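Quick entry, no commentary yet.
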Amino acid sequence: MTTATTTAEQTLDTLAERVDKTIAEVNKLAEAERKKALDLKEAIEAFHKAGLTRIVQTLKADPRGKELLFALIDEPEVYALFTMHGIVRPSLPTRVAQVIDRVRPYMQSHGGDVELVEVQPDTVYIRLLGACNGCSMSAVTLREGVEEALREHVPEIQKIEVVETDPVPALIRFDDIPTLPHQENGWIQGPPVDAVKDGEAYRLDSDSTSILIIRLDQKLMAYRNQCAHQALPLDGGLIDRLNGTLTCPFHGFCYDARSGECLSAPQAQLEAFPLRIQDGIIWIRPIS
């Protein structure tokens, strides 16, 4: 880490501490004064958010500006500012994963655990582990733990499904698609499931597309093997199993490996491909 970067981070920490201390002092004021101070804070933040949003929109509309935006978002001060104002917004899968992490200690206290398998627009697929797997009380645990937390924090989710313990596709369920013959309708045969090691990336090259297959625990994902930054290959990148991230080996752009969302730049995304498992073999359908 350079001296300039270290100084910038120290400055950011100092500013954040100053904000926290000021808010703490405001909360000690009498009700009328506290409300006025918080109203002023909200008005200033709304004013700043409007201006920042317009800046981001303008930069994204120009290729040169987009490059500058990608560079700026790597700066901790800029990223913190965008996050505070909701300009960098977590994707639905990321928000669901955050809720799952909150309820995991509760599940573990009951001798079990919960794993996020897949997120669709209104449905979450999870896997119950340990004492929760096959337990007659799993439905109660699910209702009182995961379901309640998701209902409170992610109201878009209407239903929770519990899936089996074998490896499953992360992008599309096998039951949702017909069985297709070899090399028909755009599906190509990939490696056996066991060939994709946990916490590693597997590169698969077809005639026209390079594909990256990632396995995290029991979840499989398939993406076009291109970073959203400069379309450079990602197969040499670092996979962090603990945080579930994939980092580009060239310029350090970081992605949520389970959803493809870019954590380094607003609204950037890896191109995900439908994936299914048949007879222990991974099949992928690259989208042109």
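second:
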Amino acid sequence: MLQNTPRTARMRWISILCAWTIVGLLFAAQQIVVLKVQGSHTNWVVVGALELVYWYLWAACTPLVIVLARRLPLMGPKFAVHIVIHTVTSLMMAPLTSAIEYFLSLGILRFVFHITGADVLHFLSPFGEGVVFMSFTGMLTYWLVVGLYQAVHFYQVALERQTIAAQLETQLSHAELENLKSQLHPHFLFNSLHTIGVLMQEDVDAAGHLLVSLGDLLRMALEQRENEITLRTELAFVGKYLEIEQTRFHDRLKVHMDVPPDLLDVYVPSLALQPLVENAIKHGISVDSDAGRLEIAAKLQDGRVWLCVRDDGPGPAPRLRFGVGLSNVQSRLKQLYGKASSLELTGGGGRGCEAIITIPLRNLH
């Protein structure tokens, strides 16, 4: 709802006055056209003035009607009672405004346009007839104001509910993303500690160096508060992770990067590439002594960012089922981009596996 400030109150009054002015001019135009068709000659200024008198009276009554419509809404358990009150009010207000309009119009004719005597009947009906006729119009006008207020009120309530629903949906989506990230951090940590544990049995100095690298890596992960970061930042994080893995595999793990410089500033989901790299090493390179090539590539294709992690290990058949890391990445992609994103595992021409992410292009965060 709009706050009832002096500015909004003034704008509300101006809007009411403009609306009833338009209504009065339309009725005046209608009456002038009817008189012309009937062959009667009349002063359109007088007709317009008299019409505006009546509708400006209703402009003055409109705030009161709106207050009643707000306090007595046409809904809820007291709907019938409110209908009765509105009906009684309209039956009282309509004749009263019609009578006031009659005497105001009579005064305008006499003192402004200097029309007296029998000429007055050319513009005004006899008092009783005129009041009765205009009372029906007044009752319809009352209910029109009530109905319009209820319609605007329902529209504003619907907009507020829609806004609240959108905010709740955004908060829920953000919470789900944070939950997925919180699941990914311990998963990544446990796998890294397992790597260090294996290395402790082979090379204690290398394991110690690895612990330092892991500390740096975890600090980078904890500092990433955003759900989206630049590809440059994501590659720096992956690079730290690969330092750990290269210590484990020594010279066998060869990493090749194919990322155009103009894509380094596009935004990608944080911790999106690391699970793909981890998956390639765990299920591809570590299970095949002949494997050791890891490729990370990015390109812009049809207005979408294409990210690929490729290894030269066994084919993808044993690992088509997503684990924790890839399942979380897939869920986060869905939360961030909906159907505009995808994560696929495909074969690498009979040997190796490709994990491909496609997301919309975002240059600004």
